[in-house]
Amino acid sequence: MTVEMLEGGVLQPYKFRREEHTHRFELIYVNVSQVLPHVCQLQRASTLPPNDQNTMIQAIVRSRQRRQKFDRALLENLSEVEILEIQANKVTPLVTNPGTIMLTSCKLYFQPHNNAEKYPVIKISIAEIKQIIKRRYLLRQVETNERDGLYEKLLLMDGLTLDDTQQDNISYQWQAGAISNYDYLCYLNRQADRSVNDLTQYPVYPWVLADYVSEELDLSDPGIYRDLSKPVGALNEERLKRLKDRCKDMPEPRFLYGSHYSTPGFVLYYLVREYPQYMLCLQNGRFDHPDRMFNSLADTWDNVTTNPSDFKELIPEFYNKEVVGDFLCNTQGIHFGMRQNGKPVGDVELPPWADGPHTFIQKMREALESDYVSNHLHLWIDLIFGFKQNGTEAEKSDNLFYYLCYEGSVDLAAITDLNERLAHEVQITEFGQVPKQLFFHPHPRRCKSFGLYDSTILKSRADSLESSEGNEGPLAIDKDGNFPIEVPFQDPRNFWQRLAELKQQRSCRVNREGINAVAFTADGGSILTAGQDALLKIFSLPEFNQVRSLRIGTLAVSSCLHIPGTDTILVGSWDNVVYRYSLQYSHVDPYIEAHNDAVSCMHWLKNILVTGAWDCTVKVWRIEGGADGILRRKECDNTSKFGKAGHLNPLCIGNAILCEMDHDSMVTCVAVHPDATYLATGTQDGVLALWSLPKGELIHQLNCHSHSINALAWNVDEEERVLTSGDDGLLTIVDAHLGTKICVHDLKETGRCIAWDGRLVIVGGISGDIILFDMGTGLVIKRILAHNGPVTCIAISPDYEHMASVSEDRQLILWGFDD
């Protein structure tokens, strides 16, 4: 039998001729003496039974590959130092080509074992390598020792500079709106070992639209979208019921779906017009029946939602604006056959709402990036890459496939029978493979408030600011020179949208020594400062006049806050005491002898006072009677804790310690969750601890920084996360539920204090600069030279119209907007 391909240079089905022929071969690259022994070996193998035939051929191949050595004449420079030489396979669609890898001191080479490749050797400079990913093949990590050895050697190479963005950072960037849904899905597919070079693990993308028949497409209408919380097979309830009934009667291992959502056949179903040669290779020289081909979007969607054996998802080409829909057109004029309606297979029939491939891809991409999809895409990620892809959760979610689709389902290396192993490989290759699992907990949804920022604009503006540090003028973000304003001015998000317009309004030197803390009163009418000279000072707004200055204790004061609804200011001191100052009576009292060492930080929320100290403890106090309890004055006897009748005694007014938490080093900062359900504490040794309130039970503890944690801030949006800033210059976001880092950025400068809205961060730097940093893109958006010393504290007014900053330079600066 002979197979004739590309007759006349035209792509068409192969012709199989089962008759005697005489052929003449011309050897171009080698002589007969080199080829004839191999031909004789293969001829002998062909006389054996099929099982023995496969065994002999594999033995011939392995023996030949072991004898192959890298041709040193292919080295670009003979002075290169050879580091490692191993055997490897180059994987491309439907072709796995063996060869030899040579790693030298400056390049990575691949020399194929045959002359079927376009180039005799592939050369990659070490400096050009940006990513090295350990991939699996045929549901297993292949040639682990050799692969891992090459991986480790590469990581040690001089001149190697990798894009070291972590998965957690990318996930956060997507949630923050800094990268698109399309780019995030690209990234997840790469991390899950899916590549356009491997049709058995081609990138998988969801159907997001369910309307391919309407004349117009309203992307704001939720009714046009597919339910992303369900796999394709569960979108039709009637079909799903039939599949479940069949599954109940199956022997183990049971499965719900008899086909997968991504296989080589399904990928080429979509791409046959662009890559017809792949379909001929996959289907033994034939195209599919003309009426079963990808002829219509509407028909294909109807089929995947009704057919009992069709559950395929989409591929990236449906959303990639760079390919402009070439795969939808029969531009090569391939004759795929005649359909039953008498028409030849031509271009794909598009929905009425698309007037051509370009418009179709554009609309599909807009749908993928729509608010509806952004708010629900995490549910589909759970099914494909996350905790619902296998096991009990997969069963609950109607997401169960045949067992050979899952990694670890079979150990091919342990199968000694060559034919049995080959059968398993064919099954795995053709049936489909579930991606490598990336997430083991529900994937966070995309946060709604993050949509307020245009990351493209922010990035371009950040690039332009590299040469203009210190500019204190208004920062043009869009064509109108402002952040877009879409919410009332009273909404705190508006403050962050307009942050680039923040300008210095007033400043003054207020203390003889550095200032440790600044705070606004609850009504926003005054500013408080606490200094190392033990002075508490009060400034009126908007006049910015100093109205009071009083000494608190004998040592420096570290923190201050105003209790809403009262005339009471609490001040933490290095003499271990929390003091109470009455605005009404201008009277200072030792309020709580809180710790055995200096009080370093305080936080008040919902009648709970939290104090941290250098004695390595944090205490949570409840003020019985709420804010009114602070105002009650009781006469105490001479055995009062502070030894003077008539002074406020914490026992007299009913203060009680709810809990006390020990740490291994000095406590530097505390922050209570806005719902008062969590407490975050930071220490001098860089450890973040998360506690439950009101019981004070330790939930998570992790090393966030190599040096002291200087500041903490909670996200007030849906996701419960805390941001930390440390002496090592890092900004780290931690998930309170999981106790894991989800984003880390190097600010390249120690941040002493922070304010955070969930994406943008205001950082008070050790340089004296006020820095606006975008955690989504990892970019500095604005940097203002504010102080001549480290910024020690920043505060935002209750009405979000002003910000105050203080520093070791003894300056207080008030920031605001022009209007």
From TrEMBL:
Entries under InterPro entries matching the protein: Apc4-like_WD40_dom, BEACH_dom, BEACH_dom_sf, BEACH_Domain, FAN-like_PH, PH-BEACH_dom, WD40/YVTN_repeat-like_dom_sf, WD40_repeat_dom_sf
SUPFAM superfamilies named among the record's database cross-references: BEACH domain, PH domain-like, WD40 repeat-like
Superkingdom of origin organism: Eukaryota
Stated name of the protein: Protein FAN
BEACH-type PH domain residues: 77-175
The BEACH domain, residue ranges: 159-446
Swiss-Prot/TrEMBL WD repeat ranges: 592-624, 660-701, 784-819
The entry's keywords: Repeat, WD repeat
